[in-house]
Amino acid sequence: MKRIASFAIFLFAFALNDAHALDVFACEPEWGSLVHELAGDKVDVDVGTTALQDVHVIEAKPSLIAKVRRADLVVCTGAELEVGWLPQLIRQAGNPKVQSGPGYFMASDQITTLEKPTALDRSMGDIHPAGNPHFQMDPYRILAIAKALDARLAELDPKNAAAYQQNLATFTTKWNEAIKRWEAKAAPLKGRKVVVHHWSWIYLDTWLGMEQIGALEPKPGLPPTSAHLASLVDLTKSSNTLAIIRAAYQDPKPGDWLSEHTGVPAVTLPFTVGGDEQSKDLFGLFDSTIDKLVAVAK
Amino acid sequence: MMKRGLSLALCAALCGPAFAADAPVPADPALQAMDARIRALEADAQKLREQAAQALAEASAARSELEKMKAQQVAAPVTAPTPAADQQAAAVAAVSAPAEATGGPAGGANGNAFNPAIAVILNGQYAHHSENPNNYARAGFPVVPDTGPGPQGLSLGESEISLAANVDDKFYGQFTVSYHDDNGNVGTEIEEAYIDTLTLPDGFNVRAGRFFSNIGYLNSHHTHTDNFVDRPLAYQAFLGNQYGDDGAQVRWVAPTDTFLELGGEAFRGEDYPSGGANHSGVGAWTLFAHAGGDVGTENSWLAGLSMLKTRATDADDGFSGDSTLYLADGTWKWAPNGNTKDGGLSLRSELFFDKRDGTYSQPNEVFSDPLDPLTAPWVGDRRGAYLEAVYRLNRTRDVGYRYDKLWSANGSPFFADFDPQRHSLEATWRNSEFSFFRIQYSHDEPERNIVDNAWYLQYDVALGAHGAHKF
Fold first, then answer.
1. CA of B198: which chain A residue's CA is closest?
2. How sure is the predictor about B81, in pLDDT bands with cuts at 50, 70 and 90?
3. pLDDT band (50, 70, 90) for residue B78
4. What pTM was estimated for this model as a whole?
5. Contact B96 A111 (CB under 8 A)
6. Which of A189, A214, A239, A246 is most buried, taking the most CB atoms under 10 A from its CB?
């Protein structure tokens, strides 16, 4: 009996003995990837969702509660994107480190958002009072968030502060180089018009000078209807539209239908890390996004 | 406000004599000096204000300049001058949150900024029963208040208002009031009113107040998140739809890869299946354990074992004595890519096992003579179970089937050699996350040779705060 007890204690101690300085829970893959850029193997990152999931409507699954229970830091988008599940995870996990304060990092708090509604009424669909939360498609905002996140990592793990600072410097240099490359490559996209599935692309559009002329969803968060799709046909046809764009997780059928009826290509963009073969990290995400758009611009 | 009051007071004290100095009365040189100093200070303050305003204007000009630079950079990326690094840094600064806003939106001076999140649930239904609900009886199981087939025709369902917020850095509070109408028995009731701890270490949580017990699966879930119009027969028979009472709960979540929570509760023991608040008002106890996890990205599961021990006096079904209820629950959800709101199958079953040792006395005062109450022994085991399967076709529609069964006890005064069972089919249409409409057909066999064919139409909507629901 004694031997079993000491074995159990050993096992338990082993389970608790973590080689990493910090356990990080990232709500979305882009933040998991960013943490990896800034912290490398100093931290252990659990990502709560995949690029093939709609993060608006994730369920507060037991596996996610278990992950938040062990986290020292939760990194999420914020701006109410995770309002349907993150509060429940945090409430059920019983982990005071991530209730608030340094262990609770919302990317939306670090930047300015676009499309902040001036009036709030659910008859306008599922709108976010804090602005559009899909800002991971703006590389400048990514960099602003990286700076704040790096400071947060250093605050929680001062022993490795120098390493985090070094990683941020390296990332910033590489990222700025990449931005120049992307902007040069994306020059033909400027002024082009797109039809989007969901209101997910305002930051990408603003960055690259593209214009959203319509959306497959009649209102944010409401599934496309055939009547609404039919109403988009003339507009899409007559506007010299570049593409109908959607995220990897979205149902391709409505976009394909509109594409068939207008001749405008439907393009599936990764939207986050892991959204396609090329999007293995944040660099790949933007490489792939711009490659795919430029490919249809030719 | 405080400061302005102070300066007014100062002014009254100082300016008064100073104004008096304008009168032909010979001026006091000391006062004159002070007056001059005040004027100088005021001028200084004015200058500072102007400087601040100018700085602000410059800052906002710089901001728009940065945005412009960013736009230009995008407009002419190839021809951009070589020191692009500065421009890039400026573009990053332009989209960064202003320093004072970091750490979350400031509430501002608005007194309502700290108002709790308010959610209102409205729900109503139309029901058609082939058997008169007023004559409804269930073989082996007395029908306790608020359960059973519900009223015939149009009725308002349970409508509720819920307020929730963090109390301070250590506590969270929730308050739910519901309105219900059970066969003309109208009432508002405090359904939940509890506080939760936020900062206990090592995965511990304590809850105190009135709340739904964490036993089983459905018990801690609000009925508006159910997949069917009504609760399973076992929930109706053993828990009066849902067991909640005044009490305290301790819950611990293990630091493991697989979700594991253990906990226990002590309740007053006033509400069914308890009654009479025995043991000096600690008449019911529970223990529960839940475990869960994922299998790949497409499957999630949750399973639990729970126990509810009560000592009742004149419970709603007339029982007095000791009872122990054991529950086993299991949930399995499969969805393509784990998108449970867009498709897939969810399966759930709960098993109930109830041991009773006590007596039955007629709960209705009309019949009982306090000196000679009609009592009978009530000893034995009863069981119940349900199995439900819900298939999600897409974001807006799902269909489901549920099978219910109850087994009565030999030693019960209600014993019957027939076990009630029920089949239910439902179809739900959701316009958004905040509203749904449901149609349900139930084929209920509560007694031998009696079948109640029931049709239900239900609406259920949520106003206000966006709910964050349990798995």
1. A96
2. very low
3. very low
4. 0.84
5. yes
6. A246
